[in-house]
Amino acid sequence: NEMSKDIRELEPKAVWNKFADLNAVPRPSKKEERVIQFMLDFGASLQLETLKDEVGNVIIRKPATPGLENKKMVTLQSHLDMVHQKNNDTVFDFDTQGIQMYVDGDWVRAQGTTLGADNGMGVAAIMALLESTNIPHPALEALFTIDEETGMTGAMGLKGGVLQGDIL
Length: 168
Prior knowledge:
Structural class: alpha+beta
Order of helices and strands: HHHEEEEEHEH
Helix content: 25-40%
Shape: globular
Largest sheet: 4 strands, mixed
């Protein structure tokens, strides 16, 4: 998408590129099937332990950087869904279209819709960390929950004992 090209030049590039990738995937609350698959494919592409629980939360685990194996595992959490609102004069289908983003001075905005930065930037930051090869870290566990905006279904449905991290 032509608009997202400018976004991909922003720093830190790793985070903004993941945000652009994520925002290309429709992800309204209660209809997260595509973004769940996107995250499962992302984890698999990095050859990381990747799983989906019964309600649709996605968990991706990354081993510690050599030398940091004895540190406590850290769980990072963000939610995959976004509030889907559009301006009255905007024709947009959140079920099928990705967000049209553009840079406006110091701001990143969306063309006639909500941007999805809540919690897309959190998801993007965690994705960038999972993909990075040059940021030392303890073992990481990324928890991407569903349906935060309209019912907390993902958080409420998370079973005890699924997470392995010591610090959330």
